[in-house]
Amino acid sequence: MAGGGFSASGAGGKEFEAKITPIVIISCIMAATGGLMFGYDVGVSGGVTAMDPFLKKFFPTVYKRTKDKGLNSNYCKYDNQGLQLFTSSLYLAGLTATFFASYTTRRLGRRLTMLIAGCFFIVGVILTAAAQDLAMLIIGRILLGCGVGFANQAVPLFLSEIAPTRIRGGLNILFQLNVTIGILFASLVNYGTAKISGGWGWRLSLGLAGFPALLLTLGAIFVVDTPNSLIERGHLEEGKNVLKKIRGTDNIEPEFLELVEASRIAKEVKHPFRNLLQRRNRPQLIISVALQIFQQFTGINAIMFYAPVLFSTLGFGSSAALYSAVITGAVNVLSTVVSVYSVDKLGRRILLLEAGVQMLISQVVIAIILGIKVTDHSDNLSHGWGIFVVVMICTYVSAFAWSWGPLGWLIPSETFPLETRSAGQSVTVCVNLLFTFVMAQAFLSMLCHFKYGIFLFFSGWIFVMSLFVFFLLPETKNVPIEEMTERVWKQHWLWKRYMVDDDDVDVVKKNGHANGFDPSAQL
Asked: Fewest CB within 10 angstroms: 65, 185, 198, 201, which?
C-alpha cells in the first residue's frame, strides 16, 4: 500500500511511475540510523572530554591544567594532542576503512556494507565503554571509525538509489538529520551523566552509543538492497522484483531497462578509480572533493566536537557548557528538518548561498565579541554577552544544518554516473574524513594560538566557498541521476567543456593539428 504517488522523471524526458511506498520510507529510516551513530560519536566525544573523572583517568595533565588557576588559560587549557587524538582517531580509521568499503559496496551490495558497519560499531562501543587505559580507549575509537567509514560509504548511496527522484533530496537528508539527532542525543546524555556521582558517568555516555549501533545492525538485516546494486551484481530478476516493491507498481519496465543499460555501461569500466580521472568525470570529482573540504572548513565539526569544551573556554561553568551544547544540538536538528522540506522545492544552490551569508555574519560577530570581551587569562564575558554568543553560534549552526551539512553528502551521491558511483562516493567519504581528522586534531591547538581569530579564519573560508557555489555548482534539483550528464553538466558554462571522452579529445587534436590550429583552446 502506497503512502502517496507521483511520476518520477526518467531518461529522455520519460515519466517513470513511482509511489512513495512504506517499504521505501522504512528502508530509508533504518538505513539513515548510520547517521545517528555517526552523530552520536561526534557529540559524545566533546561531552566526555569536559567531564573531570574522564580527564583524571585518561588525561591527567589536562585535568591539572583546568584546575590550576596559575596555569589556567581561557583559550589554551584544553590544548593537548592526546586529547585531540581521542576525538580524531575515529576519523583517521574511517578514512582507512573507506578504501575497503568501496569494494564491499560494489561487490557485496549496499545492505551488507551497512551490516559490516553495524558490527564494527557494536565492538567499538564495548571497548570504549569498558576502557581501562588510553590504549583500549583509542582501539575502541578506531573500530568505531571503521564503522563510520563503511556506513558513510554505503548509506548515502543506498538512500539516493532507493528513493524516487522527486523526493531523493529529502530522503537522502535523513542521513544528515540522523547525524544531528545523534549529536543532540549525545549532548542530552552527557548533560545527564555528568551529574552521576562515582565518576562512571562517562562510561554510560560512551556505552549508550550501542543503541544506534544496534538499530543500524538490525536495519541492515531487514532492509532490501537497492535495485541498482542488485542489477549491478547480476541479480536481474531480484532487482526487478525489488523495484516493483519500492515503486508500488508493476509498471517499472522503462526504469528497469534504464538501470540495466546503466549497469551494462558500468561493467565495461574495469578500473573505476582510474575512470574517475577521465575528462568527462572531472567536474563531478572536483565538486565532490571541494564540497567535502569546504564542509569541514565551515568549522562546524570543530564546534560540534568540542562544544562543551568551547563553551567552558568562554567562561561557562561545566553544567552550563553542556547545557549550551544541548541547545545548539536542538537547533541543529530543527534546522535540518527545514532542509528536508525545502531542498527539493528551493533547490541546492539557494540553500547554500543563503547559508553562506548567514554563517559569515554570525562568525564575524562572534569573533568581535570574543576579541573585546575574552582575554587569555581573564574572563569578562558577562551573562548577557554569554547568551548572545550562544544565540550567534545557534544562528551559525542553523545555517549549516539546512545547507552544507546535508548537501555536502547529497550532491556527490547524486552526481556520479553508475560506473564511477562507488569509487566517487569512496573518494567523497575519504576526503571528508581526512579533513574531519585534520580539524579534530588541530582545533584545540588552533583555538590556543588563534584565540578569537579562529572564527575569522572560518569566516574567510565561508566567503571562498560561497563564491565557488555561485560560479561553479550547477543545480541538481529534480534531475534523475542517470540524466545528470545531459541536463546538468552539458548545460553548465564551464563544465560542458569536459563532457567529451578523452579519445574524442585526442581525435579532435589530431584533426586540428592537421588543419593548422590548436584545438585544446576550444576544449
From this structure: 198
Q: Which CATH architecture has domain 22-225+269-501?
A: Up-down Bundle (1.20)
CB atoms within 10 A of CB 110: 30
d(CA 83, CA 198): 22
209 phi and psi, to 5 degrees? -65, -15
Interval 345-397: pLDDT, tens:
899 999 999 999 999 999 999 889 888 877 666 555 677 888 888 889 999 99
Residues 355/404, Cβ–Cβ less than 8 Å = yes
Q: Hey, is 16 helix, strand or coil?
A: strand
Q: Produce one character per residue of 427-459: b if its CB has 16 or more CB atoms within 10 Å, e if not.
A: bbbbbbbbbbbbbbbebbebbbebbbebbeebb
CA neighbor of 73 nearest in space, from 324, 444, 323, 388: 444
Residue 504 has pLDDT above 60, yes or no: no
R_g of the chain, CA atoms, integer Å: 24
CB contact set of 405 (below 8 Å; sequence gap of 6+): 176, 179, 180, 295, 300, 332, 336, 339
Phi, psi (rounded to 5 degrees) for 5 = -145, 155
Cα(119)–Cα(101) distance, integer angstroms: 14
All structural domains of the chain with their residue ranges:
22-225+269-501
SS3 15: strand
**Nearest-angstrom CA–CA distance, 26 and 43:** 25
Neighbour-count burial of 272, counting CB atoms closer than 10 A to its CB (0-12 exposed, 13-18 middle, 19+ buried): buried
Name the DSSP class of 380. -
> How far, in Å, CA of 109 to CA of 112, rounded?
6
**Rounded to whole angstroms, how far apart are CA atoms 163 and 253?**
17
| 33's grid cell | 540510523
Whole-angstrom distance, CA of residue 152 vs CA of residue 37 = 10
Whether 221 contacts 97, CB under 8 Å: no
Nearest to 262 by CA among 283, 244, 236, 293: 236
| Cβ–Cβ < 8 Å for 229, 110 | yes
DSSP letters for 415-471:
HS-HHHHHHHHHHHHHHHHHHHHHHHHHHHHHHHHHTTHHHHHHHHHHHHHHHHHHH
Mapped onto helix, strand or coil, the DSSP state of residue 51 is coil
53: nearest Cα among 158, 152, 131: 131
The separation between CA 468 and the C-alpha centre of its own chain, rounded to angstroms, equals: 19
Per-residue b/e over 31-48, b at no fewer than 16 CB within 10 Å?
A: bbbbbbbbbbbbbbbbbb
* Helices 383-401 & 404-415 angle (0-180, nearest 10): 10
